[in-house]
Amino acid sequence: GGKDSLVVHALARACPDIDHAWCYVGDGADEFQSSWRLQAIVRKSRAPVLRVAHEFDYEHLGKMQFGRYKPCGHPWAALVAFDSVLVAYLNGFEFIAVGNETSANYGNGVQVFDGIEVNHQYDKSFYFERRANLYIKQYLVEKLHYFSALQNLWELRITEIFCQRCQPYFQIFASCNEITKGSSRWCAKCEKCCFVFLLMSAFVEPPLAWSVFGTNLFEELSLEETFKSLYVGISSEVTNDCQEGPEQQEQRQEVQRSRSYTDGRGGKGGGG
Fold first, then answer.
1. Using N-to-C axis directions, what is the helix angle for 155-165 and 246-258, rounded to 10°?
2. What is the pLDDT of residues 66-120, one digit of tens each?
3. How far is CA 149 from CA 29, 114, 153, 154, 227, in A?
């Protein structure tokens, strides 16, 4: 239900001779059924959805310990990859297309185990994709191909495509770390909200960006430091979901030069 998945869907639709469907992996048996947003996206896309679900014992996971290290989650993208193999095989699909982008190839700047850098998005990286694809072909389904349609794209380019091709989904998609139940789809406070708002503001008119989030986040004083960390690069604290490589930093600086949100379009907070 986020922008990356919707961009992959838009690219798949551009190939009219290829049948495609959503594959949704739920964190809990009723996750899809209880989400109006996910159901609305499927209805608007007019593509079928194939669903699987898992029930995790998060309490047990939180008690696990490996020396000095404790797990902070589970490799969800890897789980989705291999769940999709079963779904694709049972339904006669030859390709599994996911939406993992280039920044997943960069680590977190934390080194452990003799200098090995931690990458919390390892199972979204091209290294994982290549190894998973080889494993699938050798041991599971020889003619099935697992790949990311966005692997060679940075967030900035993905957002540009999203704003060009996916505007019908603007009022129902969400890429927020703190989604709450109720009327609001975005918390409009977390780093991920600020990150997506900043990127979208570079490609759509200000009122349209504001309508997605329910407000103009550039005018929220409480978010000033968050935007500085993402937009200007003053702060060193950047959310893990907004990981950048050197090329993406250059792209962000280009957006900063060309589309300042104080450029006079609509007054303060007018652009992005």
1. 50
2. 677 776 667 889 999 999 999 999 999 999 999 999 989 988 777 777 778 888 8
3. 28, 33, 9, 12, 29
Q: Are 22 and 47 in contact, with CB atoms under 8 Å apart? A: yes
CATH 3.40.50, domain 1-173, yes or no:
yes
Tokens representing residue 85 in the block: 């193999």
CA atoms within 13 A on the CB side of 42: 15
- CA 99/CA 162 separation, integer angstroms: 12
Cα–Cα distance measured from residue 248 to residue 98, given in angstroms and rounded to the nearest whole number: 21
Can you tell me whether residue 247 is helix, strand or coil?
Answer: helix
Between strands 22-27 and 49-54, the pairing is parallel
Token pair belonging to 252 = 């962000």
pLDDT attached to residue 267: 34
pLDDT, residue 170, reads 94
Which part of the chain has CATH 3.40.50?
1-173
Residue 137 scores a pLDDT above 90? yes
Tokens standing for residue 212: 């997605």
